[in-house]
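Name: Protein tyrosine phosphatase receptor type N2
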Amino acid sequence: ACFSPEVTYGMFGRCHSTGVPVTEVFTYDVSPAVVQHFHTLLQKLSHRGTASSYGVCVCACVCVWCVCVYRVVGPAVTFRVRPNTQNVSTADVANVAGRLEFQINQIPTKYSTAESTKFLILTVVSILCIVAVLLASTVVYCLRHRSHHKLKEKLTNLGTDTGSDATSTYQELCRQRMAVKPPTERPEPMHSVSSRINSVSSQFSDGGTMVSPSARSSTSSWSEEPAHSNMDISTGHMILSYMEDHLNNKNRLEKEWEALCAYQAEPNSSSVGLGPGNAKKNRTNSVVAYDHSRITLKVENSQGNSDYINASPIMDHDPRNPAYIATQGPLPSTVADFWQMVWENGCVVIVMLTPLTESGVKQCYHYWPDEGSNLYHIYEVNLVSEHIWCDDFLVRSFYLKNMQTNETRTVTQFHFLTWLNQNVPESSRTLLDFRRKVNKCYRGRSCPIIVHCSDGAGRSGTYVLIDMVLNKMAKGAKEIDIAATLEHLRDQRPAMVQTKEQFEFALTAVAEEVNAILKALPQ
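Structure predicted for Protein tyrosine phosphatase receptor type N2:
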């Protein structure tokens, strides 16, 4: 019998058999690839040899020698060589196997190393890219968060700033905010906006100094063409001639204004607004809603169990349905009444014509949340979005919810920033563009537009006068009498249009809009 000795890797052992000629038996440690290759070769050539109890004899093609597989265990092959005429020994076979092992090992070793190296490099590069992206995202987020925080702080401070450069500071911040947005991110009209964006504080203080035209950005990128009008060319030229005559003839304008100042509305009692418990709800006692023409609140829903608010319905052609509600800027004690009025009259548009503070004097209370929502009695107001259209005005969108009924409505506020008390806007074109934005949002509605400044008379009256006259023209009116229209407004609320400059500005704005409409009409 032949016994295979225990050997270590890389060593050959000799098996001494008894009763048979000396036969060398080697256990040779090779790689799995060599074993597989050698085993396959033996299987392919096995049909050429003869089987024995110890293995299969196979003959090489080069020389006639017989190799018998003794045992294959894992990576080890045990074989023996029978006596042959070529004197090929087991050592010769082992040497050949060793050389084959070396040659075969070269290929998988190099390939495996190369693949491992490539995989390692790709893995490292991928990890570095991911880390770089994460770091860049973190830096951008931190910078934007810090920028928004600083912007909000500055704008919030403007609410109490009495310095003369408050207007310039606010408008510069507005320009910076618009400049950092790509063109694709410019705000869309409010009626098409549904996404919530970051809120900019609306605190605005005016130090009484108007900024120069050079400090303003051009409005050509956001102005709109005049709306479609039924006015024909002949009527337009007649109205334009009337307006220009008033503007060019200063004496005529002066006399017409003096006549308007002497006009007294009948009736003109304001006893309800000046009565006990209500006088404190007025910003000024010089502008109080008439008893016969005032908005009344539902007492059961009122915070103070009162139906009074200093607000007047303004009728146009339909005496049953007011076209506007002219009111004062809310006081801290009347904010809940203001939102109750908005809800009960079904209003969806608010036109605000005053900054919150002007030369250190409060013009209007901050009656909406800077972000998130605030609860005013039973009305929850949620700021949805805020868009800065230009230096002169911005637009906000609110969700107004009645907490008793859980009904929700959308309300849009158009805030004109640069119209100071007892004054006029720097450009009539700016206000006309602002009006077009308001009417585009309001188009098709039957509810009144809420218009307020500080006292709800000077700036509010001027805006309502311009809008009412232009609406009449758009509906095809053949004759326009602005003085008579103003008397009609003063019959419904006292002190509407407070200065001659405001009346003259209304004439100028109407003339400019008529001229723009005539240019748009087919000649």
